[in-house]
Amino acid sequence: MRAVVLVGGHGTRLRPLTLDTPKQMLPIVGRPMIEHVVGHLASHGITEVVLSLGFLPDAFTDAYPDGRCAGLPLHYAVEPEPLDTAGAIGFAATHAGIHDTFLVLNGDVMTDLDVTGLIAAHRRTGAEGTIALTPVEDPSRYGVVPTDDDGRVLGFIEKPAPGDAPTNRINAGTYVLEPSVLGRIDPGRRVSVERDVFPAMAAEGTLYAVASDAYWIDTGTPETYLQANLDLLDDPGGSVVAEDASVAPGASVVGSVVMAGASIGENALVEDSIVGSGARVGASSQVVGLSVLGAGAVVADGERVDGVRRPEVT
Ligand code: GDD
Ligand code: MG
Fold first, then answer.
1. Average per-residue pLDDT for the chain
2. Looking at ligand 1, which atom is closest to the CA of residue 7?
3. Nearest CA to 102 among 46, 146, 61?
4. How far is the CA of 108 from the centre of ligand 2 (A)?
5. pLDDT, tens digit, for every residue of 148-198?
6. Using alpha carbons only, how large is the chain's radius of gyration in Å?
7. Are 51 and 77 in contact (CB under 8 A)?
8. What pTM value is reported for the model?
9. Measuring CA to CA, which residue among 15, 61, 2, 16 is closest to residue 34?
């Protein structure tokens, strides 16, 4: 089976990290996120990944010039303009000539989801589409998906107002789809799978869902991107420091991510924060409270930044 992986979004919530690097090319413990995602698909027998690209596509094509990533061949589908999630799926599937049952993934999710089991469930019910669900504490950030006892999807409510969600089971961003779903997507214009296609399928009763309690995290905010890194470590109080980053004597790095080429000055403190590639944290300075330093950003000697994004983003 082939998988369309959506990686064309602007990663707005992760700025400034995503000003020059697409979200799925940011490192998660030493490897770009996309390699974790594709490696997981390879372990479930997926044979080819169609990358649905839009924002900064060269970051991917330059990183995998021979068109292979984590053991799988890549097909690059570059959108001429952002088509939103369903438009992107339609464009990529057509570009790659997909005519059979296929998998779709949001490329910014780190998960141990049983993709093999999801495909098997899809075959059993004969659904037109089957989506994986995961429980979360605050469903208002996600697509909320009530089902009946047989797993038939009753509705799809994307990002409901806080308190309005009928269930805490949300769209985990992995779908098995029949090619007939492509016929529901008008080519060449913005169409949302969450706001247009899935609600229509739910109303017709052709959409099913399978709940899972596997590890799952959407890496799309500074908090969850940091958490996704720390979750991969054995050491609960640890940090992820790139091999070629430098940490001067007396400095402490706690619960943080420090990317390639960054430097942390003497006696500085970096806590619960993200230091982007090539950023410089001066001597005796403090970077705390989920601060996010973009590529090459500078914190002066002795300066304290708390919950700040640098450069500032709007
Ligand atoms: N090619 C392309 N074109 N990709 C896009 C576009 C586009 O126009 N817009 C978004 N994407 C990609 C993003 O890069 C990301 O990998 C994926 O589609 C989902 O977009 P996000 O912006 O991360 O969406 P979200 O996290 O707010 O919500 C989505 O994911 C949740 C689970 O993580 C929705 O699918 C929710 O329903 C879901 O619960
Ligand atoms: Mg997301």
1. 97
2. 14
3. 46
4. 6
5. 999 999 999 999 999 899 999 999 999 999 999 999 999 989 999 999 999
6. 20
7. yes
8. 0.97
9. 61
Choosing from 18, 21, 76, 85 the residue with most ligand 1 atoms within 8 A of its CB, the one to mutate for a pocket test is 85
Instruction: Identify whether the C-beta of residue 122 lies closer than 8 Å to the C-beta of residue 176.
Output: yes
Nearest CA to ligand 1 atom 17: 106
Write out pLDDT tens, residues 37-46: 999 999 999 9
Q: Residue 172 C-alpha to ligand 2 middle, in angstroms?
A: 9
Nearest 5°: the CA angle 41, 43, 49 is: 30
Residues with Cβ < 8 Å from 149, sequence gap 6 or more? none
Does residue 170 contact residue 143 with C-beta atoms inside 8 Å? yes
The binding-site residues of ligand 1, defined as CB within 6 angstroms of any ligand atom, are 6-9, 52, 54, 79, 82-85, 88, 106-109, 142-143, 158, 170-171, 173, 194, 218, 220
Tokens of 280: 């410089």
Write the CB contacts of 171 (distance below 8 Å, at least 6 apart in sequence): 131, 132, 133, 142, 143, 144, 145, 156, 194, 198
Q: pLDDT tens-digit profile of 103-116?
A: 999 999 999 999 99
Give residue 276's Cα distance to chain centre: 18
Token pair of 281, please? 């944290």
pLDDT value, residue 234: 80
